[in-house]
Automatic annotation (TrEMBL), chain A:
Family matches, as InterPro entries: PX_dom, Vps5_C
Gene: si:dkey-28n18.9
PROSITE patterns named among the record's database cross-references: PX (PS50195)
Protein name: Sorting nexin-5
Source superkingdom: Eukaryota
Species for this entry: Cyprinus carpio (Common carp)
TrEMBL record, chain B:
Signal peptide residue numbers: none
Xref: PROSITE patterns: PX
Annotated localization: Cell projection, Lamellipodium; Early endosome membrane; Golgi apparatus, trans-Golgi network membrane
Membrane topology: Peripheral membrane protein
Keyword line: Acetylation, Cell projection, Coiled coil, Endosome, Golgi apparatus, Lipid-binding, Membrane, Phosphoprotein, Protein transport, Transport
Transport as UniProt keyword: yes
Protein's recorded name: Sorting nexin-1
Length: 374, 526
């Protein structure tokens, strides 16, 4: 969704952004990010660590002179992964949820990749210079850490606001808030339950593995009957091994599609929550300012100044409002699309796996039946 | 008779998969001309069942468990009259009938065979030359004439109330054997009857070195729940587990050529009312185990080797012990598999609920529909996991558990041989003492006591030769039994693997169907 305008646009194609590799050095994960230049066939590859992603997010939050910034729903950035040895799987699961599972940080990389794609596809955010710099500069932007954006400034206030219930500025937003609260809670629950299912599938795979290995111990060549029995045990071992691989595949399919999708959905719902708070705060601030100015100006009877100020405030308010409304529309349609793609992907993967293993079991069955006539 | 928890057929096989699913427990080896080792017989071909009711109703006699779900209702609580013949499709047992005579001839047992009328072992006295028989000859004796005998245990019903209540099972027999009064008949038996049968058989046959199949174990906890009237899934599972175990027990008993001829077995199958078996306490799990463990001790006490066949027995016993350990381990592995599958089942159910809720609050109608469909998929998968868990359990876990106990029975067999040998040893040493006594008397020249001494010697000489014959016979029997057992074991395991694979395949096909149904729904989201 590239916007061609006078302003600086992203120089790479949003859909081409990929995280192609990840390396671990002690506690630090380094990601290789590749993308395709828009106007040439050249590709770009840069190396980034998590702190760089954080910097990008902060930069996006703290863009100045961007009207209606408060109305934007920012794509959620996954939490930082802590890959140290002392971090057990339970801790990792608590911290990252689904993204902690999977081989070699694959799910985590996919989530980060998705984040970058979402930012690059956002009509307003893609214009942020920080993004371009993040994706193209070989030098990491690490030096410029510490810029706190609107989010951090208000983070404490966000907590305050959440505790109290404030009247929303508009019925539209009230409805959104209610829907969002429900959805956010349910998405989170669904994600957790899917995680339970995936963990059990992995346990099953492991149990099958043990069983298959134990069967190998039954091999005994002493006499004809023992040989026959050993053959049978080995056959069963093969079958159980197949069941093992089946479960591993199923679990990995679950992870890479539905798991990822639900996790993303869940985090997006959280992002929307944050957005609402930011909106409320912005509107509140405007209110306060209005009151303040009003008190000041009340003494001087410069009506024109008052009215001009009033108009300016209303304009700002309307701008935020309209941006917010657009964002919500965009958010919903994008969200539905994303979930649809994940569901289709998941279904296709699981269907292929199921067919593959049906074929394999069928072959084993044939072989077993032939054992009779041996 | 108070209302019982009737046995509902297992929820799974689908109509269209019925044929593929049928148990091929019966070996079809018409083409098999191999004389040497394979059993040559045909049993009843499994008839395809034509299901008359709901797609989820399956064959009553399939080996897998039936799970009494409150939401699965079946029109009748037992056998349909038109399914009478189908009772036994899953319950066939291969039978051999031989008269185990010394000459290795194959004899067909007729209705007037002496075996039927006596309570003694049908074996005639074996000549000592038996021990030198080759393995091939012993295996040849295995194949015999073909008769059909199918047994099924069904319809558990609770009789009575409170702590005096008990479960009564229907034992149905279908046979072409002439020694039975009818071709098809059934009786009702309770668990203690089965234990009583074991006790009787054991008393008679174990002394001869036969491997007696052990009965299912007593379970105070399981039965108490049933008695108290807890109608939950765990007591239904317990009853099903026991029913299947009793069926397998009987099938093993009648598969044994000598045991089948035992009139007690016939009486058990045929007679309407059996006297109540008492003193079955000794046959609880721990009791049986104690009896079995003594076998190993007895072997260790054997200091003098008798002849070269001892090597065979010693190494065989070691093999049996090793195998028992291995099977225990395997059983534990399968148990863990079953538990994980049950866990997966629960988790899937929880996931389904949360997805369904998500679908109900979702505003986008296509997405909402897709999520509801997803909840349906998860629901089907939960059922599939449940069924597969039952397969795992009834096909694999119970098989392994049965064989752990059977191997224990094999060890008992070895112990019997030990006992007979010890008796022989003792008699020989007594005879020796008597001879010494006679010699002393001759030396001391006391003619009046000499006659007594001579009488004693004669008595003990005949005892020794009797015990020698006994020992030869036991040795031969044990050997044959072990061979038969091992062949049977290999075949049993093979059959079960095929069955297991069939169930896996069936589940997998249904899984494919689930996903195929969901795909268009996912694609329809706009």
């Amino acid at each position: 969704m590239e916007v061609s305008s006078a302003e600086a646009a992203l120089s790479v194609s949003a859909s081409s952004i990929r995280i192609t590799d990840v390396t671990q050095d002690g506690d630090v994960l380094t990601f290789a990010i590749a993308s395709q230049k828009l106007n040439s066939s050249a590709g770009v590859c840069v190396f980034r660590i998590y702190e760089d992603f954080d910097w990008l997010q902060q930069s996006l939050f703290s863009q100045e002179n961007l009207p209606g910034l408060q109305g934007i729903i920012f794509p959620p950035l996954p939490s930082k992964a802590l890959p140290s040895q002392s971090n057990t799987q339970t801790k990792a699961l608590k911290q990252l949820g689904f993204l902690a599972l999977g081989q070699d940080w694959q799910s985590y990389c996919k989530a980060l990749e998705f984040y970058l794609q979402q930012v690059a596809a956002h009509p307003t955010l893609c214009k942020c210079k920080a993004l371009d710099s993040f994706l193209i500069n070989s030098e990491s932007p690490g030096k410029q850490r510490g810029r706190k954006g609107i989010f951090n400034r208000l983070s404490q206030a966000v907590e305050e606001m959440r505790k109290e219930s404030h009247k929303d500025v508009d019925n539209f937003f009230q409805n959104e808030r209610n829907k969002n609260t429900n959805l956010a809670a349910l998405s989170k629950v669904a994600t957790e339950k899917l995680l339970d299912v995936v963990m059990t599938e992995q346990k099953l795979a492991l149990a099958c593995g043990h069983f298959a290995t134990s069967l190998h111990l039954c091999v005994n060549q002493d006499d004809a009957a023992a040989v026959a029995f050993s053959k049978v045990c080995l056959k069963l071992s093969d079958v159980i091994e197949a069941v093992n691989r089946n479960f591993e595949k199923v679990a990995s399919n679950d992870l890479s599609t539905l798991g990822l999708g639900l996790d993303l959905e869940s985090r997006y719902q959280e992002a929307e929550k944050v957005w609402e708070c930011v909106l409320m705060i912005a509107c509140k601030l405007i209110e306060l300012e209005t009151v303040k100015k009003g008190t000041e100006k009340a003494k001087a009877s410069k009506r024109e100044v008052m009215e001009a100020f009033q108009k300016a405030v209303e304009k700002e308010f309307n701008l935020i409002s309209s941006v917010a409304k657009q964002e919500i529309e965009r958010f919903h349609s994008s969200r539905v699309n994303v979930l649809k793609n994940f569901l289709i992907g998941w279904c296709e993967l699981q269907l292929n796996t199921a067919k593959e293993f049906a074929e394999l079991y069928s072959q084993h069955l044939e072989a077993c039946r032939n054992m009779y006539s041996e | 008779m108070s209302g019982g928890c009737g046995r509902n057929p297992p929820p799974f096989p689908d109509n269209e998969d019925q044929e593929a699913e049928l148990d091929t427990r019966v070996l079809d080896s018409d083409e098999d001309d191999d004389d040497e080792g394979e059993d040559i017989f045909t049993g009843a071909r499994s008839k395809p069942i034509t299901p008359t009711s709901a797609p989820d109703e399956g064959d009553i006699f399939s080996e897998e468990g039936s799970y009494i779900r409150s939401d699965v209702h079946h029109a009748t609580n037992g056998l349909h009259s038109d399914e009478e013949l189908d009772l036994f499709t899953e319950a066939t047992v291969e039978l051999t009938l031989t008269n185990t005579t010394s000459q290795g001839r194959r004899e067909i047992i007729g209705p007037t065979a002496s075996a039927c009328n006596t309570t003694h072992v049908p074996n005639s006295i074996l000549k000592p030359s038996i021990v030198t028989k080759t393995m091939e000859e012993l295996e040849e004796e295995e194949s015999g004439d073909q008769f059909e005998l199918n047994i099924a245990v069904t319809n558990p019903e609770k009789i009575g109330d409170g702590m005096n209540a008990y479960m009564s099972y229907k034992v149905s027999t279908q046979t072409t054997l002439p020694m039975f009064l009818n071709k098809t008949f059934s009786v009702r038996r309770r668990f203690s009857d089965f234990l009583g049968l074991y006790e009787k058989i054991s008393a008679k046959h174990s002394l001869l070195g036969c491997i007696i199949p052990p009965p299912p174990q007593k379970s105070v906890v399981g039965m108490t729940k049933v008695k108290v009237g807890k109608e939950d899934s765990s007591s239904a599972e317990f009853v099903e587990k026991r029913r299947a175990a009793l069926e397998r027990y009987l099938q093993r008993v009648v598969a044994h050529p000598s045991l089948l001829q035992d009139p007690d077995v016939r009486e058990f199958l045929e007679r309407d009312e059996l006297p109540r078996a008492v003193n079955t306490q000794a046959l609880s799990g721990p009791g049986l185990l104690k009896m079995i463990n003594r076998a190993s001790d007895a072997v260790n006490k054997m200091t003098i080797k008798m002849n070269e066949s001892d090597n065979w027995f010693e190494s065989k016993l070691q093999e049996v012990e090793n195998e028992e350990q291995l099977l225990r381990r395997l059983h534990a592995a399968v148990d863990s598999l079953v538990n994980h599958r049950k866990e997966l089942c629960l988790n899937t159910a929880v996931l389904r609920k949360s997805v369904a809720m998500l679908g109900s609050v979702e505003e986008n109608s296509a997405l909402s529909r897709a999520l509801s469909q997803l909840a349906e998929v998860e629901d089907k998968m939960e059922q599939l996991h449940q069924q597969q868990a039952f397969s795992d359990f009834f096909i694999l876990a119970e098989l392994l558990a049965d064989y752990v106990r059977l191997l224990g029975a094999v060890r008992c067999c070895f112990e019997q041989r030990m006992k007979v040998w010890q008796r022989l040893q003792e008699a020989q040493s007594t005879l020796q003492k008597k001879r010494e006594a006679e010699a002393k008397l001759l030396w001391a020249n006391k003619p009046e006591k000499l006659q007594q001494a001579k009488d004693d010697i004669n008595e003990w000489e005949s005892k020794v030769s009797q015990y020698e014959r006994d020992f030869e016979r036991v040795t031969c029997t044990v050997r044959k039994e072990v061979l038969r057992f091992e062949k049977e074991k290999a075949r049993d395991f093979k059959q079960h693997i095929v069955k297991y694979l069939e169930s896996l395949l069936h589940t997998q096909h249904r899984l494919v169907k689930c996903w195929e149904a969901f795909l268009p729904e996912a694609k329809a989201i706009a």
